[in-house]
Amino acid sequence: MGLAQKLAGYPRLILAGNPSKLDKSLLLSGILCAIASGVPFPLIGIIFGQLLNDFNTATCDQSETPGSASQLQNGINGKILMIVYLAIAQFVMIGSHLFCFSTFGARLAQRLRERYLQNLLRQEPTYFDNLPPGEVASRLSADIQTIRSGTSEKVGICLASVSFFVTAYIVAFIKDHDLAAMLISLIPAYFLMSFVGSHYIEKYAGLMSDYAASAASIASEALSNLTVVQAFGANKRLEEKFSDALQSSEREGLKKSLAIGIQSGVLYFVAYSANALAFWQGSKSIADFAEHRSNGASVGATFTVIFILVEATLLLSQVAPFVHLFMAAVASFEKLRTDMDREPLIDGTSTLGLTLSKVAGNFEFRDVSFTYPSRPEIIVLDQVNISIPALKHTAIIGLSGSGKSTIASLATRLFDPTHGEISLDGHDLKTLNTRSLRSFISLVQQEPSLLDRSILENIAHGLVNSSNPEHVHLKTILLGPELADLAAEVREGQNLLTASEKRGSGVVEVVALVRKAAALADADTFIEKLQFGYATLAGSSGRLISGGQKQRVALARALVKDPAVLILDEATAALDSRSERRIQEAIAKIAGGRTVLTIAHRLSTIVGADNIIVMHKGRVVEEGSHSTLMAKGGAYADLVKLQSLATSHESRDSATQRDATSESDDFSETDVDACVTKGSAHESVEEKESGLSDGQGVEVLSSKTPDEPETPSTSVWMLLKGYAPAVRPHLLMLTAALIGSTIVGGAFSGEAVIFGNTVGSLDICKTPSSIRSSGNFYGLMFFVLAIIELFANVVSWSGFGWISEKIVYSARVLSFRSLFEQDLQWHQSKGRTPALLLSYITRDGNALAGLSGSVIGTFLSITINLVAAIVLTHIIAWKIALVCLALVPLLLGAGLMELRVLGQFEERHENAYSKSVDIGTEAISSIKTVSSLSLEQETLNVYRRSLKGPRQETFQVTLQASFWQALTYFLGNCVNALAYWWGSKQIIAGNYTQTQFLIVVFSLLVSAMLWSQMFALAPELSNGRAAMARILSLIDIGSDKLRGDLSKRRPNNEASSEKDLESTREAKSSHYGSHQAAAVQFRDVHFSYPARPSVKVLSGLSMEIPAGSFAALVGPSGAGKSTIITLVERFYTPQLGSVIINGVDVTKSGDVSFRDSIALVPQENVLFEGTIEFNISLGAKPGHAVSLEDIQEACKLANIHEVIDGLPNGYQTLCGPNGNQFSGGQKQRLAIARALVRQPKILILDEPTSALDAESERLLQNGLEKASEGITVIAIAHRLNTIRKADRIYLIEAGQCVDSGTHEELLKRSPSYRLNVMHQTVAE
C-alpha cells in the first residue's frame, strides 16, 4: 500500500458506513474541541515563564523589602489564578471532545457491524464457499472491537496533542524564533518515523487478523459440531490445526511488537535529542542576555520555549501507543471493506428487475450447465433440458451427486447457471426481480435450517416474502419485535391465544396462519406437547428439536404462505413413515392449483407424481409417469426393485390381513414393562448431531438470565497469580522488559532533575561562562538520556509485546482445549451457544491481545514514574511535595472511577455483543435459508434489537467516562497551580531554591500529565481485565491450567496415548471385520434433558444388544432413538439406571476412553474445513495416525472412493466450510468412511442412508456388511430397507422399547411396524 493510500485509509475509515448528520456533527465538534483543548497548555507555559522571571527577580534581588515580597506574591497569585481559569476551559474542551469521539466511535462501530452484515446477507450463497462463519464471527467481534478502539476518544487525544504541538511552536516562534526554528527539525523526524513504523505495524496487524480469523473459523466449526468432535476424540487433531493458524498469527505479532518498540524508541530518542539541542541553544541565548542585557532571550522566554516544546514532544511521544491502535483499526477495516464493498452476482434485496403480479409456475431449463465457482472443473449439470409444467407435480430422482438439489437451487435463483437459460412462465429468471421471484416459491431444503427464534417465529418466516396480497399488511409485524415479545410472554406463562389477542388482529392472524401450516405439516401435535408450545426456542440452527421435528417445522414454514411453487428437496427424509404419509396426504390435498417439484430418494413418496425425471451424473436419462417408467424397465424400475421391502405380493397381502394383536408371540429379550409417560415424551429431543439437548431452551427465556461467557469476580492479585505460570517460561524476557520499563519510567524523573538543574543554572544572576558551561553539560546529559531511552523503549515495548503474544497464544490454545474437554451438558446449559463460547477465543483473546507491549509497557512506565516522582520530590523538597500530593488521591480516584464506569458497562452488555455475533454467524451458516425466504431485513432487525441495550446506554456511560477522564486532566493542572502557588511562597520565604522547586514542579507536572493520559487506555485495561478473568475461569475448569509451555502434554493424556498406540498396533495388523465386538445393555434407564427435567425422554428403558449383532432402532420421530445413542456415547448421564458396555457401567465413571472403540455416523453429516483426507482421518483413534491406504479402504466400503478418485485433487480436495462442496449424499458417505476408518467395536449409524439414492444405499449396505463383520452395529433408520437384515429390530415409542424381533417377526405381529412397511413399499 502506497503512502498516499495509507494516509487516505484512516479518514476513509472515520467516514465509513454513511455517517448521519448527527455523526458528522459529533465528528466536527470533537475535532474543534480537541484542537481547542490543545491550546490552553502552551498558554499556561507562557505564564510559567513569567512566573520564572518573577522567581529570578526574587532570588537575585537580595535587598527585597517585605512590601515588595507581598507585591510579588500578589502578582504570582494573579498568574496562578489565570492558570486555573485556563485549566477550567481545558476541562470543558477535553470533556467535550472525549464525549464526542467516544460516542462517534461507538456509533461508527455499530454502523460498520450493520453494514458488514447487511452486505454479506446480499451475497449469493456461492460467495460463502470461501468465507466460513467463523471468519465472519472474528470480523464482527475482534475486528469491530479493534476499529472501535482506534476510532474513539484516542482520536481526540491525538488531535489535542497535535494542536498542543502546533500551538507550542507558534508560541515558541513568538518568544524565541531562533530556538524554535532550530527545533522545528523535530517535525520531519517525527512524521518520518511515524509513517515508516506505521507501515510495518499495519502490515503485520493485517496478517495477524487473517490468521486469527482462520483459527476462529476452525474453532467455530468444531464448537458447532461438538458431538462429532467428542465422539471421535478429534479435539486434539483440530487443536493442532487451530494452533498452527495461531502460531502464524503469533509470528506476525512478534514482528509487530518489534516494529512498535523500534518506532517508540526512535520517537523518544528524537524528543530527548531535541531537548538536548534546546538546552544547549537556550543556554547560549541566556548567556548573551546576561552578558549584554540585550540581543538574547530572557530566562522566562527561553524557559517557555523549552518547557512547552519539551512537553509537546513528550506528549507526542506518548501518542505512540495510540498510533498502532489506529493502524490496526485501518488494517481491520480493510478486511471488512472487501466484503462491504462487494456487489453480489445475485442480489435478493434489489428492487431492479421485472416484478410479476402472479405466476402459473411453468419452469423451463434449456441447455443448462452448471459448475460451482469454487470447483469449476467438476460439471454438476451438463446441458440439461427439462420442463416443470405449471400446476403439475414433477419429481426428480437419481444417484447422490447427480445435480438434483442444484436444480432446486437454480429454480429459486440461489445460483445462476454457467450456461443455458432458465425461464419461469417464459421470463428468463435473470430478468426477474429476485425477491419477487422468491415470493412465489417455497423451498424445503435437503438439510433444513431453523434460526434461533421461537417455533412461532420460524414458521412465520415463510410469510415475510409472500406474494399473497392478503399477507402484505402483516409485514410490519413480521419484521418487528411483536412475535418475539409474544413468544417471551408465553414462555413466562401466558396463553398463546390470549396474549396474541392483546397485541391486535394482525398478530392473531399470523398465529392462526402458523398453526394451520403446522397442522398441514404434521407438526402441530408435537409442538403443542412442547413445554412452551409454539413459543419454544428452536435453538441455533434448530439444534433444540429432533431432525424429524425440524423437518416438519421447515415444511410448515414453506406451506404457510400458500406458495404458487412448492419445491421439496428430500423434505421428509428424516421422518418416520407414518408422519411422511400424513404429510404426503396433506401436500396432495393442497397440490391442486400449484406447481410442485419434489426431489426424493424414497420412491414411495413420488409414485403419484405427474412426471418423474431420472438423472445421472448431471444428465437426464429418462422421464415419465411411474407406470410408464416401470413399463420401460429402465433405471427407474431398477431403483424401485432395490427399495422393495416385501418378498412378494402374497406375503405383503397376508401380512396386511394378519391379526394385528399377536404381540403374545413376542420373544424379545427386552423388558417392555416400563411405564410410558404422558404424550409429552414425544417432545423429547431426539436430537441430531449437534442438538442433543435443549440446554438453552429454558435458560435463555428470561432476559435476566445471563448468557455465557460470564465474567467472574476476580481480584487483580488473583489474575496475576493465575497468569503467573504462563509468564514463568518467559522470565528472562520479562526481566528485560521490566528493566526497560523501569528505565523509561525513571527517565521522566531523570528528565525533571536535569530540567530543574538546567533552568536553575540558566540564572541571569550567574556569569555568562557559567551559564554556557551548564548548558553544554546538561545538554549532553539530555542526549545521554535520549540514547538510554532509545534502547529502553525498544526493549520494554518489544519485550512486553513478545510476552503478550506468547501468553495470548497459550491462553487461546488452552481455552480451545478446555472448551472441548467439557461435556455436552455443560455446552448446552446456562445459555451457552457455539457463538458465545467462540467469543472466548475471538473477542476475549483480542481483548487480552489489546494489553500488548505498548499498553502494558506504557502502564508500567507511568506507574513507575509516579512512584519515582513521589519519592524524588519528597527527597528534594518535601514541604512542596507534601502539599501537592494532597491532590494525587483525587487524580487517582478520577481515573479509577472512569475504569469502574467502563467496567460496569462491559459487564452489563458483554452478552449483548456476543449474542449479536451469534445472530450474524447463524445467518451466514444458514445463508440459503435466509436468501430463499428473503429474511435479510428480518435478520438485520433482530441484530439491531440484540444491541438495543448497549446502544441506549452508550450516551450516559460515555458522558460519565468522559467527565472522569477530563477531570484527571483538570486535577493535573490544579496540582501544577498548587505547586506554583505553594512553591512561590517557599522560594520567597527562602526555604527552597528555584532549582529544587523546578525539579518538584516538573516532576509532578509530567506525572500528572502522563497519569491523565494513561486513562485514555482505560477501555483497553477494562476490557483486558474482564477478558483475563473469563479466560482464566474457562482454562481452570479444564485439565490443564494456564501455562506458557504447551509442548508438554498432561500425563493422563500421555498414558491414554500410549494405550491408543498399543491398540493401534494391534489394529494395524488387522483388517476390517476382524474386531472384537462389544455388548451393550440398558437397564431401567430413565432420562430427561437437563433443561427440561420434568419431561421424561426415556422411561425405564431396558434392552440388550448382544456383541457382534446388527441391532436397529425404529420408531416415530421424537421417540427417543437418538437419545439412546447419545447415552451409549455417554454424552449425557441418565438420572436412573445403567448403560453397560462390555460389562462396564459407563455412567459411573468420568473416563470416556471407551469411546475409542465406538464410531458414530450422526444424523446430520458434518464435515470440517480441510481436505477429504484430513476429514476422514479425524475418525482415527486418538494417538493413531491412519495411512492413506486405510482411508481409501474405508472410502471403498462407504462407496465414495470412485467419486473422490474422479476429483482433480483426489483426497486432497478441500471440503469447504461445513463440507459445502459436496452433496448431501456424498457428505453422508464421507461421514460413514470417517467412522469405518476407526475400525470400531461398536458402529452407531443414525439415519445413515437418509440422503442416499437406492443404488448408493445398496452398495453402501454391501460395504457395511463387510465392514461390520465381528462388530456390534446399532442403526437408527426410518427407511426400513436399510435395516431389514438386522439381527434384531427394537421398536421405540415414547421412550420405551415396546417390541423387538426380526423384520419378518415384527411384520407379522406389530401393526405399527407393518404399517411402516406398507407406506414404504412401491407398487410395481
From TrEMBL:
Protein keywords: ATP-binding, Membrane, Nucleotide-binding, Repeat, Transmembrane, Transmembrane helix, Transport
Ranges of Acidic residues composition bias in the record: 662-672
Alphabetical list of Gene3D superfamilies matching this protein: ABC transporter type 1, transmembrane domain, P-loop containing nucleotide triphosphate hydrolases
Recorded GO MF terms: ABC-type oligopeptide transporter activity; ATP binding; ATP hydrolysis activity
Biased composition (Basic and acidic residues): 680-691
GO CC annotations, alphabetized: mitochondrial inner membrane
PROSITE patterns cross-referenced by the UniProt entry: ABC_TM1F, ABC_TRANSPORTER_1, ABC_TRANSPORTER_2
Spans traversing the lipid bilayer: 26-48, 80-106, 155-174, 180-201, 300-333, 731-757, 777-803, 847-870, 876-899, 961-983, 995-1018
Domain called ABC transporter: residue spans: 363-642, 1080-1319
InterPro entries reported in the protein's UniProt record: AAA+_ATPase, ABC1_TM_dom, ABC1_TM_sf, ABC_transporter-like_ATP-bd, ABC_transporter-like_CS, P-loop_NTPase, Type_1_exporter
Compartments (UniProt record): Membrane
Name the UniProt record assigns to this protein: MDR-type ABC transporter
Native source species: Trichoderma parareesei
Lineage start: Eukaryota, Fungi, Dikarya, Ascomycota, Pezizomycotina
